[in-house]
Amino acid sequence: MTTVNMSESWTASINFTFSTFTEKTKSVESRNQDYRLKIVQLYVEPVVGLLGMIANMLTFAMLIKSGLRKPSNIIIFGLTLADCLLLITPINIIALTGRFLHSKETANYFGWECSENLARLLSTFNRVLTTLHYWGGFAGTGLPVVITLERFIAVFFPMKFASIVTTKRAIVAVVTVWLFWGPWACLSAFVRDFWFTVLPNGQAIGYEKVSEFYIHNFNLLYNLDRYVFNFLSSIVPVSLVTIGCVLIGVKVKHSYLQRQLIFSAKTKKKPSLKTTRTLMTIALIIATVHGTYFTVTCAMVDQFINDTTFSLVLDEIKMTLVYVCGSCNFFVYVLLNSNFRNILVNMFPKV
What we know:
The protein is mainly alpha-helical. Helix content is 69%, strand content 5%. A 3-stranded antiparallel β-sheet has the order 1-3-2. Its main location: membrane.
């Protein structure tokens, strides 16, 4: 059987945003020898991932201080968790060593040059981390829709908002998104099998290759990935968030103009829109990033089909953009919401 190595945790072909099962055909050796890929994968992405993980930990701390009974905080908590899981891959040392730490004889493998038991353990950990990464990445595309819906109700039905958007319903909405994507993310763990071999030069290596399950169910998995879940993680959420943000923006502007007509400038009290502004900014950033990913992928479809080295570099640049997106929400909270900003300041002892 022909060995097909899967060295990328997130693979991209002509699909729109995230592809769980589609593989690249270019050899692993050519990927690992390209200095541009090494720069992005060994330096740029890990730095972004580490800084993003720290920022998301601070977000968790701010949310706990602020309280998790508020529906918007519950949704933000779910999104922050998704961002943390998404950022596992750029700082996944196990995967990085499996890809790059090789001798010349084993450069075309994705695996670990060690004893069989240790290599199998590393492979298992890597599959778990990769599955969590997929789960967070996919859930992170659905939660902005929940954010948009919550703000839509707040803006269009302010008098009924408290009775419609409750703590329990916010929890149910967030958990539903996670449960929906869970089986599809977990299925990715069965795409690869662990193999162990000793090369003619005596070098032992435990490596991963495409599983029999993947080969036997390729057509089903490929079609589900490309035509169902790929749309649900790209075009659908981007469209819903964009349309929702436009409607919310028009409504907020209309309400503001109405208040100007009713009240004088001296007596009118400007309503607080910090929550709406904060959440809509987050939703728009995510929609913009994934929309850009989709547009670039479609524009470069010939490059992706031919699997050129340039397309591999572009894949990593696009994923770096996604990682930046998963790292920037903390800064949005602090810059646009005074409550979060005050909580952050009070978290550190005054000198």
